[in-house]
Amino acid sequence: MTSQPALTQKFLAQQLEKLDGRSYSAYKGLKGDYAFADFNFTLAHVQGDPFAAPSRVSIWVSHGQGQWPQDYWHSPTRCVVLADFLHRQIMQAIPQVEQNRGSGKSGRLIMAPTSQVVLARTAVQVTSEGIELRLGVGLPAFGRRIAGQAARHLLTEDLPQLVTSTLYYQPSWRSAVDQHMATVEDANALRAQLSEHNLVAFIANGSVLPRCSGVDPQPLPKAVPFKAPRALEVTLLTPHGGPITGLGIPTGVTLIVGGGYHGKSTVLKAIAHGAYNHIPGDGRERVVADGATVKIRAEDGRSVTGVDISPFIDRLPQGLSTRVFSTTNASGSTSQAANILEAIEAGAKVLLIDEDTAATNLMIRDRNMQTLIAKDKEPITPFIDKVRQLYSDHGISTVLVMGGSGDYFEVADHVIALDNYLAQDVTVQAKAIAAQHPSERQGEGGQHFGTITQRHLQLPQFDTGRKKSAKVKTQRLTTLTLGLEDIDLRGIEQLIEPNQARAIAHAILTWQQQKRPHLLQDLLDDIMTWVGRQDFDALTPYPMADLSEFRRHELAAIINRLRSLRVISEPSIDRPW
Ligand code: ADP
Ligand code: MG
Protein backbone atom coordinates (compact mmCIF):
# COMPACT_ATOMS: atom_id res chain seq x y z
CA MET A 1 0.00 0.00 0.00
CA THR A 2 2.36 2.66 -1.17
CA SER A 3 0.34 4.68 -3.67
CA GLN A 4 -1.32 7.82 -2.44
CA PRO A 5 -5.13 7.51 -2.17
CA ALA A 6 -7.18 10.23 -3.87
CA LEU A 7 -9.52 10.86 -0.94
CA THR A 8 -8.36 12.91 2.03
CA GLN A 9 -8.80 13.05 5.78
CA LYS A 10 -10.75 16.28 5.39
CA PHE A 11 -13.09 14.65 2.90
CA LEU A 12 -13.76 11.76 5.29
CA ALA A 13 -14.47 14.23 8.12
CA GLN A 14 -16.99 16.08 5.94
CA GLN A 15 -18.68 12.88 4.81
CA LEU A 16 -19.03 11.63 8.39
CA GLU A 17 -20.69 14.85 9.44
CA LYS A 18 -23.06 14.58 6.50
CA LEU A 19 -24.02 11.06 7.53
CA ASP A 20 -25.16 12.19 10.97
CA GLY A 21 -28.61 10.76 11.70
CA ARG A 22 -28.62 8.59 8.57
CA SER A 23 -29.23 4.87 8.64
CA TYR A 24 -26.24 2.76 9.73
CA SER A 25 -25.80 1.12 6.35
CA ALA A 26 -24.77 4.48 4.87
CA TYR A 27 -21.37 3.95 6.51
CA LYS A 28 -20.77 1.33 3.82
CA GLY A 29 -20.40 4.06 1.21
CA LEU A 30 -17.27 5.26 2.98
CA LYS A 31 -15.33 2.05 2.46
CA GLY A 32 -11.98 2.76 0.85
CA ASP A 33 -8.57 4.35 1.20
CA TYR A 34 -7.88 7.86 2.49
CA ALA A 35 -4.70 9.92 2.60
CA PHE A 36 -4.55 11.32 6.12
CA ALA A 37 -2.04 13.99 7.09
CA ASP A 38 0.45 11.52 8.55
CA PHE A 39 -0.56 8.09 7.23
CA ASN A 40 -2.97 6.24 4.99
CA PHE A 41 -6.28 5.11 6.43
CA THR A 42 -8.40 2.27 5.05
CA LEU A 43 -11.93 1.43 6.01
CA ALA A 44 -11.86 -2.16 4.80
CA HIS A 45 -15.17 -3.48 6.05
CA VAL A 46 -18.19 -1.93 7.72
CA GLN A 47 -20.11 -3.76 10.44
CA GLY A 48 -23.81 -4.43 9.90
CA ASP A 49 -24.96 -2.57 13.02
CA PRO A 50 -23.39 -1.09 16.16
CA PHE A 51 -23.78 -4.39 18.01
CA ALA A 52 -22.01 -6.51 15.39
CA ALA A 53 -18.29 -7.29 15.31
CA PRO A 54 -16.47 -3.95 14.87
CA SER A 55 -15.57 -2.59 11.45
CA ARG A 56 -12.17 -3.42 10.04
CA VAL A 57 -9.74 -0.56 9.76
CA SER A 58 -6.14 -0.53 8.68
CA ILE A 59 -3.51 2.13 8.92
CA TRP A 60 -0.35 2.39 6.90
CA VAL A 61 2.60 4.45 8.09
CA SER A 62 5.50 4.49 5.65
CA HIS A 63 8.99 4.57 7.13
CA GLY A 64 9.31 8.06 5.61
CA GLN A 65 6.42 9.09 7.84
CA GLY A 66 7.08 6.97 10.95
CA GLN A 67 10.79 7.80 11.02
CA TRP A 68 11.89 4.56 12.69
CA PRO A 69 15.65 4.29 12.11
CA GLN A 70 16.47 1.57 9.58
CA ASP A 71 18.37 -0.27 12.27
CA TYR A 72 14.98 -1.35 13.68
CA TRP A 73 13.65 -2.93 10.52
CA HIS A 74 16.66 -4.07 8.52
CA SER A 75 16.15 -7.79 9.22
CA PRO A 76 13.03 -9.97 9.21
CA THR A 77 13.56 -10.70 12.93
CA ARG A 78 13.78 -7.02 13.76
CA CYS A 79 10.60 -6.32 11.80
CA VAL A 80 8.75 -8.87 13.93
CA VAL A 81 10.22 -7.53 17.16
CA LEU A 82 9.38 -3.92 16.31
CA ALA A 83 5.84 -4.96 15.38
CA ASP A 84 5.48 -6.81 18.68
CA PHE A 85 6.78 -3.78 20.56
CA LEU A 86 4.40 -1.39 18.78
CA HIS A 87 1.47 -3.76 19.30
CA ARG A 88 2.02 -3.59 23.05
CA GLN A 89 2.37 0.22 22.94
CA ILE A 90 -0.94 0.59 21.14
CA MET A 91 -2.71 -1.79 23.52
CA GLN A 92 -1.53 0.36 26.39
CA ALA A 93 -2.62 3.60 24.73
CA ILE A 94 -6.07 2.47 23.59
CA PRO A 95 -7.84 3.09 26.94
CA GLN A 96 -6.89 6.77 26.67
CA VAL A 97 -8.80 7.10 23.40
CA GLU A 98 -11.52 4.53 23.75
CA GLN A 99 -14.87 5.75 25.01
CA ASN A 100 -18.48 4.85 24.75
CA ARG A 101 -19.70 6.81 21.74
CA GLY A 102 -23.22 5.46 21.40
CA SER A 103 -25.05 2.14 21.28
CA GLY A 104 -23.48 -1.29 21.41
CA LYS A 105 -19.83 -1.28 20.40
CA SER A 106 -19.87 2.38 19.28
CA GLY A 107 -16.42 3.80 19.98
CA ARG A 108 -14.73 0.51 20.82
CA LEU A 109 -11.19 -0.06 19.54
CA ILE A 110 -10.32 -3.73 19.37
CA MET A 111 -6.81 -5.10 18.96
CA ALA A 112 -5.77 -8.74 18.91
CA PRO A 113 -4.27 -9.72 22.28
CA THR A 114 -0.58 -10.42 22.78
CA SER A 115 1.05 -12.79 25.30
CA GLN A 116 4.41 -13.32 27.01
CA VAL A 117 6.07 -14.25 23.72
CA VAL A 118 7.18 -12.34 20.67
CA LEU A 119 5.37 -13.55 17.57
CA ALA A 120 4.58 -12.26 14.11
CA ARG A 121 0.95 -11.18 14.19
CA THR A 122 -1.30 -9.63 11.58
CA ALA A 123 -2.46 -6.81 13.91
CA VAL A 124 0.81 -4.94 13.48
CA GLN A 125 3.19 -5.74 10.66
CA VAL A 126 6.48 -4.08 9.86
CA THR A 127 8.08 -4.46 6.44
CA SER A 128 10.98 -2.76 4.75
CA GLU A 129 8.48 -0.16 3.52
CA GLY A 130 6.49 0.73 6.59
CA ILE A 131 4.13 -0.25 9.37
CA GLU A 132 0.62 -1.59 9.02
CA LEU A 133 -1.83 -1.56 11.90
CA ARG A 134 -5.12 -3.48 11.75
CA LEU A 135 -7.79 -2.96 14.32
CA GLY A 136 -11.50 -3.20 14.86
CA VAL A 137 -13.41 0.04 15.29
CA GLY A 138 -16.99 0.27 16.52
CA LEU A 139 -18.46 2.90 14.21
CA PRO A 140 -20.65 5.12 16.38
CA ALA A 141 -24.44 5.17 16.24
CA PHE A 142 -27.43 5.77 18.43
CA GLY A 143 -29.61 2.78 17.74
CA ARG A 144 -29.35 2.40 13.97
CA ARG A 145 -28.76 6.12 13.37
CA ILE A 146 -25.21 7.16 12.55
CA ALA A 147 -23.58 9.40 15.15
CA GLY A 148 -21.70 11.51 12.61
CA GLN A 149 -19.94 13.89 14.96
CA ALA A 150 -18.78 11.08 17.20
CA ALA A 151 -17.52 9.18 14.16
CA ARG A 152 -15.64 12.24 12.91
CA HIS A 153 -13.98 12.69 16.32
CA LEU A 154 -13.09 9.05 16.51
CA LEU A 155 -11.76 8.45 13.01
CA THR A 156 -10.25 11.81 12.08
CA GLU A 157 -9.03 13.12 15.45
CA ASP A 158 -8.63 10.54 18.21
CA LEU A 159 -7.45 7.68 16.02
CA PRO A 160 -4.79 9.82 14.28
CA GLN A 161 -3.66 10.96 17.72
CA LEU A 162 -3.38 7.32 18.82
CA VAL A 163 -1.44 6.41 15.70
CA THR A 164 1.04 9.27 15.86
CA SER A 165 1.66 8.76 19.56
CA THR A 166 2.32 5.02 19.23
CA LEU A 167 3.53 4.16 15.72
CA TYR A 168 5.92 7.06 15.22
CA TYR A 169 9.48 6.89 16.37
CA GLN A 170 10.17 8.66 19.63
CA PRO A 171 13.76 8.91 20.86
CA SER A 172 12.58 8.35 24.44
CA TRP A 173 11.52 4.80 23.47
CA ARG A 174 14.93 3.89 22.31
CA SER A 175 16.09 1.95 25.33
CA ALA A 176 12.83 -0.01 25.61
CA VAL A 177 12.90 -0.96 21.92
CA ASP A 178 16.58 -1.80 22.11
CA GLN A 179 15.87 -4.10 25.02
CA HIS A 180 13.04 -5.81 23.11
CA MET A 181 15.39 -6.36 20.16
CA ALA A 182 18.30 -7.52 22.33
CA THR A 183 16.15 -9.96 24.28
CA VAL A 184 14.91 -11.68 21.14
CA GLU A 185 18.24 -11.65 19.33
CA ASP A 186 20.00 -13.06 22.39
CA ALA A 187 17.39 -15.83 22.73
CA ASN A 188 17.79 -16.68 19.05
CA ALA A 189 21.57 -16.75 19.48
CA LEU A 190 21.28 -19.06 22.50
CA ARG A 191 18.96 -21.37 20.59
CA ALA A 192 21.27 -21.40 17.58
CA GLN A 193 24.16 -22.61 19.78
CA LEU A 194 22.28 -25.57 21.24
CA SER A 195 23.16 -28.09 18.55
CA GLU A 196 26.90 -27.32 18.41
CA HIS A 197 27.01 -27.96 22.17
CA ASN A 198 24.87 -31.11 21.85
CA LEU A 199 22.13 -29.55 23.91
CA VAL A 200 18.37 -29.66 23.59
CA ALA A 201 17.66 -26.78 25.94
CA PHE A 202 19.33 -24.09 28.01
CA ILE A 203 18.15 -22.37 31.20
CA ALA A 204 20.21 -19.35 32.18
CA ASN A 205 21.11 -18.84 35.79
CA GLY A 206 18.83 -16.26 37.36
CA SER A 207 15.83 -17.18 35.20
CA VAL A 208 12.46 -17.01 36.92
CA LEU A 209 10.46 -20.03 35.85
CA PRO A 210 7.24 -20.21 37.92
CA ARG A 211 4.19 -18.14 36.96
CA CYS A 212 1.86 -16.22 39.24
CA SER A 213 -0.90 -18.75 38.70
CA GLY A 214 -2.43 -21.08 36.16
CA VAL A 215 -4.31 -18.14 34.67
CA ASP A 216 -1.73 -15.39 35.21
CA PRO A 217 1.41 -15.79 33.10
CA GLN A 218 3.36 -13.06 34.92
CA PRO A 219 6.50 -14.23 36.75
CA LEU A 220 5.90 -15.34 40.33
CA PRO A 221 7.23 -12.65 42.66
CA LYS A 222 9.82 -13.85 45.17
CA ALA A 223 10.49 -17.02 43.20
CA VAL A 224 13.74 -18.86 43.75
CA PRO A 225 15.85 -17.92 40.71
CA PHE A 226 17.17 -20.80 38.65
CA LYS A 227 20.73 -21.97 39.28
CA ALA A 228 22.46 -24.64 37.22
CA PRO A 229 24.28 -27.52 38.90
CA ARG A 230 28.04 -27.21 38.31
CA ALA A 231 28.39 -30.43 36.35
CA LEU A 232 25.84 -29.38 33.73
CA GLU A 233 26.78 -25.72 33.60
CA VAL A 234 27.58 -24.28 30.19
CA THR A 235 28.39 -20.80 28.99
CA LEU A 236 26.95 -19.60 25.70
CA LEU A 237 27.58 -16.33 23.91
CA THR A 238 25.01 -13.68 23.09
CA PRO A 239 25.40 -10.63 20.87
CA HIS A 240 23.98 -8.20 23.42
CA GLY A 241 24.26 -9.83 26.85
CA GLY A 242 27.76 -11.31 26.41
CA PRO A 243 28.53 -14.74 27.88
CA ILE A 244 25.57 -16.33 29.68
CA THR A 245 25.96 -19.27 32.04
CA GLY A 246 23.24 -21.75 32.85
CA LEU A 247 22.05 -25.32 32.66
CA GLY A 248 22.60 -27.05 29.36
CA ILE A 249 20.33 -30.05 28.98
CA PRO A 250 22.25 -32.50 26.82
CA THR A 251 20.87 -34.52 23.95
CA GLY A 252 19.89 -38.08 24.86
CA VAL A 253 17.69 -39.01 27.78
CA THR A 254 17.43 -36.65 30.73
CA LEU A 255 15.45 -37.38 33.84
CA ILE A 256 14.14 -34.70 36.18
CA VAL A 257 13.44 -36.12 39.62
CA GLY A 258 12.63 -34.73 43.04
CA GLY A 259 9.95 -34.63 45.67
CA GLY A 260 6.43 -33.48 44.96
CA TYR A 261 6.08 -29.69 44.83
CA HIS A 262 9.82 -29.13 44.41
CA GLY A 263 9.48 -27.50 41.00
CA LYS A 264 9.85 -30.33 38.46
CA SER A 265 6.85 -29.54 36.29
CA THR A 266 7.71 -25.85 36.36
CA VAL A 267 11.13 -26.56 34.84
CA LEU A 268 9.62 -28.79 32.15
CA LYS A 269 6.99 -26.19 31.25
CA ALA A 270 9.66 -23.53 30.96
CA ILE A 271 11.55 -25.78 28.54
CA ALA A 272 8.36 -26.32 26.52
CA HIS A 273 7.97 -22.55 26.32
CA GLY A 274 11.61 -22.23 25.32
CA ALA A 275 10.61 -22.99 21.74
CA TYR A 276 9.41 -19.35 21.74
CA ASN A 277 11.09 -16.02 22.51
CA HIS A 278 9.87 -14.17 25.56
CA ILE A 279 9.44 -10.47 26.20
CA PRO A 280 11.74 -8.56 28.54
CA GLY A 281 10.68 -9.01 32.16
CA ASP A 282 9.09 -12.42 31.65
CA GLY A 283 11.78 -14.28 33.59
CA ARG A 284 12.17 -16.88 30.83
CA GLU A 285 13.94 -14.62 28.31
CA ARG A 286 17.02 -16.80 28.46
CA VAL A 287 15.30 -20.15 28.59
CA VAL A 288 15.52 -21.67 25.13
CA ALA A 289 14.76 -25.06 23.66
CA ASP A 290 15.29 -26.62 20.26
CA GLY A 291 12.53 -25.31 17.98
CA ALA A 292 11.41 -28.88 17.34
CA THR A 293 10.60 -29.58 20.99
CA VAL A 294 7.17 -31.09 21.59
CA LYS A 295 5.42 -31.61 24.90
CA ILE A 296 3.74 -35.01 24.97
CA ARG A 297 0.90 -36.04 27.22
CA ALA A 298 -1.90 -38.51 27.59
CA GLU A 299 -5.12 -37.12 26.21
CA ASP A 300 -7.88 -39.64 26.55
CA GLY A 301 -10.97 -38.99 24.48
CA ARG A 302 -9.16 -37.52 21.51
CA SER A 303 -9.66 -38.91 18.05
CA VAL A 304 -6.81 -40.55 16.18
CA THR A 305 -6.73 -41.17 12.45
CA GLY A 306 -4.59 -43.86 10.88
CA VAL A 307 -1.50 -43.63 13.07
CA ASP A 308 0.94 -46.52 13.32
CA ILE A 309 1.25 -46.89 17.08
CA SER A 310 2.78 -50.37 16.86
CA PRO A 311 6.11 -49.27 18.43
CA PHE A 312 4.17 -48.89 21.68
CA ILE A 313 0.98 -50.86 21.32
CA ASP A 314 0.55 -53.98 19.26
CA ARG A 315 -1.31 -57.25 19.13
CA LEU A 316 -4.55 -55.96 20.53
CA PRO A 317 -7.03 -58.54 21.75
CA GLN A 318 -8.54 -60.44 18.79
CA GLY A 319 -5.36 -59.90 16.80
CA LEU A 320 -6.21 -56.38 15.73
CA SER A 321 -3.36 -54.49 14.15
CA THR A 322 -2.33 -51.07 15.38
CA ARG A 323 -0.37 -50.16 12.28
CA VAL A 324 -3.18 -47.94 11.04
CA PHE A 325 -4.83 -47.12 14.26
CA SER A 326 -7.95 -44.99 14.33
CA THR A 327 -10.31 -44.27 17.15
CA THR A 328 -12.85 -41.65 18.06
CA ASN A 329 -12.13 -42.06 21.75
CA ALA A 330 -8.53 -42.90 22.59
CA SER A 331 -7.50 -44.17 25.99
CA GLY A 332 -4.72 -42.63 28.06
CA SER A 333 -2.09 -44.97 26.65
CA THR A 334 -3.24 -45.00 23.01
CA SER A 335 -3.59 -41.22 22.98
CA GLN A 336 -0.11 -40.76 24.36
CA ALA A 337 1.34 -43.29 21.92
CA ALA A 338 -0.39 -41.47 19.05
CA ASN A 339 0.86 -38.12 20.34
CA ILE A 340 4.43 -39.42 20.30
CA LEU A 341 4.23 -40.92 16.81
CA GLU A 342 2.45 -37.92 15.37
CA ALA A 343 5.05 -35.60 16.89
CA ILE A 344 7.83 -37.62 15.29
CA GLU A 345 6.00 -37.69 11.95
CA ALA A 346 5.83 -33.89 12.09
CA GLY A 347 9.57 -33.63 12.76
CA ALA A 348 9.96 -33.42 16.55
CA LYS A 349 13.55 -33.71 17.76
CA VAL A 350 12.91 -33.40 21.48
CA LEU A 351 10.05 -34.90 23.49
CA LEU A 352 9.04 -33.55 26.89
CA ILE A 353 7.00 -35.81 29.14
CA ASP A 354 5.72 -35.10 32.63
CA GLU A 355 4.54 -37.95 34.79
CA ASP A 356 1.71 -35.66 35.99
CA THR A 357 0.10 -35.85 32.57
CA ALA A 358 1.36 -39.19 31.28
CA ALA A 359 -0.33 -42.59 31.17
CA THR A 360 1.47 -44.73 33.76
CA ASN A 361 0.95 -47.95 31.82
CA LEU A 362 2.65 -46.43 28.79
CA MET A 363 5.59 -45.21 30.86
CA ILE A 364 6.52 -48.15 33.07
CA ARG A 365 6.07 -51.89 33.54
CA ASP A 366 8.14 -53.11 36.42
CA ARG A 367 9.58 -56.53 37.10
CA ASN A 368 6.74 -57.73 39.29
CA MET A 369 4.20 -56.78 36.67
CA GLN A 370 6.28 -58.44 33.95
CA THR A 371 6.24 -61.59 36.05
CA LEU A 372 2.52 -61.55 36.71
CA ILE A 373 1.36 -60.49 33.23
CA ALA A 374 3.44 -62.15 30.54
CA LYS A 375 4.65 -60.05 27.60
CA ASP A 376 2.37 -61.89 25.18
CA LYS A 377 -0.65 -60.79 27.23
CA GLU A 378 0.35 -57.12 27.31
CA PRO A 379 -0.05 -55.15 24.08
CA ILE A 380 1.85 -52.17 25.50
CA THR A 381 5.60 -51.77 25.19
CA PRO A 382 6.42 -49.15 27.81
CA PHE A 383 8.26 -45.98 26.95
CA ILE A 384 11.15 -47.02 29.18
CA ASP A 385 12.00 -49.72 26.60
CA LYS A 386 11.80 -47.31 23.66
CA VAL A 387 13.31 -44.11 24.95
CA ARG A 388 16.91 -45.10 24.14
CA GLN A 389 15.99 -46.38 20.69
CA LEU A 390 14.25 -43.12 19.95
CA TYR A 391 17.62 -41.50 20.40
CA SER A 392 19.82 -44.14 18.78
CA ASP A 393 17.55 -44.83 15.78
CA HIS A 394 16.09 -41.38 15.21
CA GLY A 395 18.21 -38.87 17.13
CA ILE A 396 15.21 -37.85 19.20
CA SER A 397 15.99 -36.78 22.75
CA THR A 398 13.65 -37.00 25.72
CA VAL A 399 13.39 -34.90 28.86
CA LEU A 400 11.27 -36.67 31.36
CA VAL A 401 9.87 -35.63 34.73
CA MET A 402 9.65 -38.79 36.79
CA GLY A 403 9.45 -38.64 40.56
CA GLY A 404 7.64 -41.94 40.91
CA SER A 405 9.81 -44.64 39.29
CA GLY A 406 13.52 -45.23 39.69
CA ASP A 407 13.48 -47.82 36.89
CA TYR A 408 14.33 -44.96 34.54
CA PHE A 409 17.75 -44.48 36.19
CA GLU A 410 19.00 -47.33 33.99
CA VAL A 411 18.06 -45.67 30.73
CA ALA A 412 18.87 -42.04 31.54
CA ASP A 413 22.05 -40.28 30.41
CA HIS A 414 21.57 -37.55 33.00
CA VAL A 415 19.50 -37.24 36.15
CA ILE A 416 18.72 -33.81 37.52
CA ALA A 417 17.12 -33.53 40.94
CA LEU A 418 15.11 -30.56 42.13
CA ASP A 419 15.36 -29.84 45.80
CA ASN A 420 13.46 -26.81 47.03
CA TYR A 421 13.51 -25.49 43.45
CA LEU A 422 17.29 -25.89 43.23
CA ALA A 423 18.67 -28.15 40.52
CA GLN A 424 21.36 -30.72 41.31
CA ASP A 425 23.13 -33.22 39.12
CA VAL A 426 22.50 -36.63 40.71
CA THR A 427 23.50 -38.74 37.71
CA VAL A 428 26.32 -40.53 39.52
CA GLN A 429 24.19 -41.37 42.58
CA ALA A 430 21.28 -42.54 40.43
CA LYS A 431 23.55 -44.78 38.34
CA ALA A 432 25.14 -46.21 41.50
CA ILE A 433 21.72 -47.00 42.93
CA ALA A 434 20.66 -48.61 39.67
CA ALA A 435 23.82 -50.75 39.70
CA GLN A 436 23.29 -51.76 43.30
CA HIS A 437 19.59 -52.51 42.92
CA PRO A 438 19.03 -53.48 39.31
CA SER A 439 15.38 -53.34 38.30
CA GLU A 440 15.76 -56.83 36.81
CA ARG A 441 13.29 -55.89 34.17
CA GLN A 442 13.24 -57.72 30.88
CA GLY A 443 13.79 -55.32 28.03
CA GLU A 444 10.69 -55.50 25.83
CA GLY A 445 11.57 -52.96 23.18
CA GLY A 446 13.10 -55.25 20.55
CA GLN A 447 16.02 -54.24 18.33
CA HIS A 448 14.63 -51.03 16.94
CA PHE A 449 12.17 -48.32 17.70
CA GLY A 450 9.83 -49.39 14.90
CA THR A 451 8.03 -47.67 12.07
CA ILE A 452 7.27 -43.99 12.02
CA THR A 453 3.90 -43.09 10.54
CA GLN A 454 3.91 -41.26 7.23
CA ARG A 455 0.35 -40.65 6.28
CA HIS A 456 -1.43 -39.41 3.20
CA LEU A 457 -4.33 -37.44 4.56
CA GLN A 458 -7.46 -35.98 3.10
CA LEU A 459 -8.45 -32.81 4.90
CA PRO A 460 -12.17 -32.66 5.69
CA GLN A 461 -14.67 -30.51 3.83
CA PHE A 462 -16.04 -28.20 6.48
CA ASP A 463 -19.65 -27.20 6.67
CA THR A 464 -20.03 -23.59 5.56
CA GLY A 465 -23.73 -23.21 6.34
CA ARG A 466 -25.01 -20.38 4.19
CA LYS A 467 -21.68 -18.52 4.29
CA LYS A 468 -18.88 -18.58 1.77
CA SER A 469 -16.36 -20.04 4.17
CA ALA A 470 -16.57 -22.22 7.26
CA LYS A 471 -16.85 -20.72 10.71
CA VAL A 472 -13.64 -20.24 12.68
CA LYS A 473 -13.91 -19.46 16.36
CA THR A 474 -11.63 -19.88 19.34
CA GLN A 475 -12.61 -20.20 22.98
CA ARG A 476 -9.45 -19.11 24.76
CA LEU A 477 -6.94 -21.96 24.46
CA THR A 478 -9.66 -24.50 25.11
CA THR A 479 -11.63 -25.05 21.93
CA LEU A 480 -11.29 -24.25 18.27
CA THR A 481 -14.47 -24.40 16.24
CA LEU A 482 -13.95 -25.13 12.58
CA GLY A 483 -17.19 -25.44 10.63
CA LEU A 484 -19.34 -27.68 12.79
CA GLU A 485 -16.40 -29.36 14.46
CA ASP A 486 -15.10 -28.49 17.92
CA ILE A 487 -11.43 -29.30 18.40
CA ASP A 488 -10.23 -29.68 21.95
CA LEU A 489 -7.02 -27.65 22.28
CA ARG A 490 -6.26 -28.48 25.90
CA GLY A 491 -3.86 -31.28 25.01
CA ILE A 492 -1.80 -28.95 22.79
CA GLU A 493 0.22 -27.36 25.55
CA GLN A 494 2.58 -25.35 23.39
CA LEU A 495 -0.17 -23.24 21.85
CA ILE A 496 0.40 -19.87 23.47
CA GLU A 497 -2.17 -17.60 21.86
CA PRO A 498 -5.69 -18.46 20.67
CA ASN A 499 -4.88 -16.53 17.51
CA GLN A 500 -2.30 -19.16 16.62
CA ALA A 501 -5.15 -21.69 16.52
CA ARG A 502 -7.20 -19.26 14.47
CA ALA A 503 -4.39 -18.88 11.95
CA ILE A 504 -3.97 -22.64 11.79
CA ALA A 505 -7.71 -23.03 11.14
CA HIS A 506 -7.51 -20.63 8.20
CA ALA A 507 -4.48 -22.41 6.81
CA ILE A 508 -6.38 -25.71 6.97
CA LEU A 509 -9.39 -24.16 5.23
CA THR A 510 -7.18 -22.80 2.47
CA TRP A 511 -5.45 -26.10 1.80
CA GLN A 512 -8.64 -28.11 2.14
CA GLN A 513 -9.90 -26.34 -0.98
CA GLN A 514 -7.37 -28.32 -3.02
CA LYS A 515 -9.60 -31.34 -2.34
CA ARG A 516 -6.77 -33.82 -2.72
CA PRO A 517 -4.78 -36.02 -0.36
CA HIS A 518 -1.52 -34.67 1.01
CA LEU A 519 1.45 -36.41 2.52
CA LEU A 520 1.21 -34.80 5.93
CA GLN A 521 4.88 -33.82 5.97
CA ASP A 522 4.52 -32.04 2.60
CA LEU A 523 1.40 -30.27 3.76
CA LEU A 524 3.20 -29.01 6.87
CA ASP A 525 6.19 -27.89 4.75
CA ASP A 526 3.89 -26.05 2.35
CA ILE A 527 1.95 -24.18 4.97
CA MET A 528 5.04 -23.35 7.00
CA THR A 529 6.64 -21.80 3.92
CA TRP A 530 3.86 -19.21 3.91
CA VAL A 531 4.12 -18.69 7.64
CA GLY A 532 7.88 -18.27 7.30
CA ARG A 533 7.28 -15.47 4.81
CA GLN A 534 4.64 -14.09 7.16
CA ASP A 535 2.28 -13.98 4.24
CA PHE A 536 -0.78 -14.60 6.37
CA ASP A 537 -3.07 -12.85 3.91
CA ALA A 538 -2.45 -15.75 1.54
CA LEU A 539 -4.06 -18.04 4.11
CA THR A 540 -7.30 -16.10 4.51
CA PRO A 541 -10.15 -14.92 2.29
CA TYR A 542 -9.50 -11.30 3.31
CA PRO A 543 -6.77 -9.57 5.37
CA MET A 544 -7.40 -10.41 9.02
CA ALA A 545 -6.32 -8.61 12.17
CA ASP A 546 -6.27 -11.50 14.60
CA LEU A 547 -3.80 -14.11 13.43
CA SER A 548 -0.57 -15.09 15.15
CA GLU A 549 2.39 -17.03 13.84
CA PHE A 550 2.43 -20.72 14.75
CA ARG A 551 4.82 -23.68 14.71
CA ARG A 552 4.51 -26.70 12.46
CA HIS A 553 4.01 -28.86 15.55
CA GLU A 554 0.83 -27.12 16.65
CA LEU A 555 -0.38 -27.10 13.04
CA ALA A 556 0.14 -30.86 12.91
CA ALA A 557 -1.49 -31.27 16.32
CA ILE A 558 -4.66 -29.50 15.21
CA ILE A 559 -4.85 -31.39 11.91
CA ASN A 560 -4.39 -34.65 13.80
CA ARG A 561 -7.29 -33.84 16.12
CA LEU A 562 -9.81 -33.21 13.34
CA ARG A 563 -12.48 -35.81 13.82
CA SER A 564 -13.40 -35.83 10.16
CA LEU A 565 -9.83 -36.34 8.95
CA ARG A 566 -9.31 -39.28 6.61
CA VAL A 567 -6.23 -41.31 5.93
CA ILE A 568 -6.01 -42.39 2.32
CA SER A 569 -5.56 -45.90 0.92
CA GLU A 570 -5.32 -47.80 4.17
CA PRO A 571 -8.03 -49.62 6.04
CA SER A 572 -8.75 -48.25 9.49
CA ILE A 573 -9.98 -49.71 12.69
CA ASP A 574 -12.50 -47.78 14.66
CA ARG A 575 -12.36 -49.16 18.10
CA PRO A 576 -12.24 -47.31 21.40
CA TRP A 577 -9.38 -48.83 23.25
P1 ADP B 1 6.40 -30.60 41.07
O1 ADP B 1 6.16 -30.84 39.63
O2 ADP B 1 7.79 -30.97 41.49
O3 ADP B 1 5.38 -31.24 41.96
P2 ADP B 1 5.74 -27.83 40.50
O4 ADP B 1 6.68 -27.51 39.39
O5 ADP B 1 4.33 -28.10 40.14
O6 ADP B 1 6.32 -29.03 41.38
O7 ADP B 1 5.84 -26.64 41.51
C1 ADP B 1 5.10 -26.62 42.72
C2 ADP B 1 4.81 -25.18 43.12
O8 ADP B 1 5.99 -24.47 43.39
C3 ADP B 1 4.07 -24.40 42.06
O9 ADP B 1 3.06 -23.64 42.67
C4 ADP B 1 5.12 -23.50 41.48
O10 ADP B 1 4.59 -22.30 40.99
C5 ADP B 1 6.05 -23.27 42.63
N1 ADP B 1 7.43 -23.07 42.18
C6 ADP B 1 8.04 -23.74 41.18
N2 ADP B 1 9.29 -23.30 41.00
C7 ADP B 1 9.48 -22.32 41.92
C8 ADP B 1 10.57 -21.46 42.25
N3 ADP B 1 11.72 -21.53 41.56
N4 ADP B 1 10.39 -20.54 43.22
C9 ADP B 1 9.23 -20.48 43.89
N5 ADP B 1 8.17 -21.25 43.63
C10 ADP B 1 8.28 -22.16 42.66
MG1 MG C 1 4.63 -31.95 38.79
Walk me through this protein's architecture.
This protein has 577 residues and is α+β, with helices and mostly antiparallel strands. Strands 1, 2, 3, 4, 5, 6 and 7 form a seven-stranded mixed β-sheet that branches. Strands 15-18-19-13-20-21 form a six-stranded mixed β-sheet, with helices on both faces. Mean pLDDT is 94; it is low at 571-577. The structure holds adenosine-5'-diphosphate and magnesium ion (MG). Residues 209-210, 220, 223-224, 258, 260-266, 421 line the site of adenosine-5'-diphosphate.
Summarize the structure.
The chain is 28% helix and 21% strand. The chain is of the alpha+beta class and 577 residues long.
Number of strands: 28
Query: What ligand species are in this complex?
Result: adenosine-5'-diphosphate, magnesium ion
Helix/strand structural class: alpha+beta
Note the beta-strand portion.
15-25%
Main β sheet profile: 7 strands, mixed
Q: Per the principal axes of the C-alpha atoms, what is the gross shape?
A: globular
Number of helices: 14
Which regions contain 5 or more consecutive residues with pLDDT less than 50?
571-577
Distance between the termini: 55 Å
Quaternary organization:
single chain
Mean pLDDT reading: 94
Helix content: 25-40%
